[in-house]
Amino acid sequence: MTILPKQARIVEVGPRDGLQNEPEAISTEDKRRFIHLLVASGLQQIEVTSFVHPKRIPQLADAADLIRSLQPHPGVTYSALVPNMKGLERAQETGIQRIAVFTAASETFTQKNINMTIKESLDTFRPVIEGGLALGMSVRAYVSTCWVCPYEGDIAPEQVLPVVQALAGMGVDEISLGDTIGAAVPTDVKRTMDLLLTHHPADKLALHFHDTYGTALANVVAGLEMGVTTFDASAGGLGGCPYAPGASGNLATEDLVYLLTRMGVETGVNLGKLAEASAFMQGVLGRRLPSKQLQRLMANMETGASLCS
Ligand code: HMG
Ligand code: MG
Question: Whose C-alpha lies nearest to ligand 1, atom 22?
Fold first, then answer.
């Protein structure tokens, strides 16, 4: 029998990955309230926004105001995406403690997403990472399209490894591997992780699954069985990348918390309280969010139970 880890760490990306593709402007106050509720659920790592070009991601143009409005909480770390030195300068002014750089294993996706080749992106990140670390920030990195690229199709593990190695050599403390369009299945995850884990310890790698094809939870189990303990997810299953056509939301945090808890893996997150955060954002957006656990809890509530029951 596979021995599962006792605990897993969830990186909540709902306020950033979840909201970045929303077409209608969401007020800074509603974002602040959403993040406040996420913290109240026990989430400790929350990616709140991005310092990218505001014309490319208008929804997150209020990044600086949002970060300044957030209440600090012991044990809670807020982070933001930073693609270049201009982004680092903007991030620094807000006092944020953690930043994340982001590239991909596919050239076409990198070009469409950040207007750079993979090599240019790595050259751009080196001073961003050094600068961030010198400012006392911690730095995460993302590698998108680790399994399937919306433009190039299947991505071989051998294409992912050199990007991960380059980033690991620059001093980031964690590399999150993205299934950007949510097409991977557990055998894909195992193949790529088999190669990566021969070069990098599992505690330096995170898995970031989108759920377009409904395989994200199965992929989490594959990752868990290989020793990975950090998973990215988005409250309610919000999300999608505007430069990955067809990509739906991230794996829903509620569904991840349910799975892990039921498998005996602690997350420190209260499912009912988390559903309150998602229910709040569902009200702001005016549509049902895809998380199965959220919808189950909300249906229970209609019968008189509270979300936390
Ligand atoms: P660019 O146009 O190549 O930038 O954009 P540039 O360096 O040539 O500069 C052009 C202008 O942009 C200049 O202004 C810069 O100052 C300005 P001008 O002199 O013309 O007035 N500029 C900026 N302004 C504000 N903040 C900045 C910034 N940088 C330059 N940081 C850039 C390059 C990367 C900025 C652009 O392509 C961009 O913003 N892309 C956004 C990509 C994005 O946010 N994608 C979604 C997130 S990634 C994701 O979702 C995947 C992930 O979830 C994992 C997964 O699922 O796989 C992480
Ligand atoms: Mg993503």
Answer: 53
Nearest in space to 10 (alpha carbons), one of 308, 290, 260: 260
Looking at residue 49, its pLDDT comes to 98
**CA proximity to 102, closest of 169, 154, 176, 24:** 176
Q: Has this prediction a pTM greater than 0.85?
A: yes
Rounded to an integer, what distance in angstroms lies between the CA atom of residue 248 and that of residue 40? 26
Ligand 1 pocket, residue 16 CB under 6 Å: no
- Is-contact 13 208, C-beta < 8 A? yes
Rounded to an integer, what distance in angstroms lies between the CA atom of residue 172 and that of residue 83?
A: 14
User: Is any atom of ligand 1 closer than 6 Å to the C-beta of 288?
Assistant: no
Q: What is the DSSP string of 263-307?
A: TT-B----HHHHHHHHHHHHHHHTS----HHHHHHHHHHHTT--T
- Give dist(CA 32, CA 207) in Å, integer: 26
**Quick one: which atom of ligand 1 is closest to the CA of 241?**
50
In a domain, 307, yes or no: no
Identify which ligand lies nearest to the alpha carbon of 244: 1
Neighbouring C-beta atoms of residue 255, cutoff 10 Å: 23
Tens-place pLDDT, residues 52-105: 999 999 999 999 999 999 999 999 999 999 999 999 999 999 999 999 999 999
Q: Which residues contact 155 (CB under 8 A, 6 or more apart)?
A: 105, 106, 145, 146, 147, 148, 149
Amino acid residing at 64:
A
Say what the pLDDT of residue 172 is: 98
Total count of domains within the chain:
1
The reply to whether 101 falls in a domain is yes
Kindly report the CATH number assigned to the domain that includes residue 63: 3.20.20.70
| Domain membership flag for residue 60 | yes
**pLDDT over 80 at 244, yes or no:** no
Q: Which residues are catalytic?
A: 241
Domain of residue 257 covers: 9-302
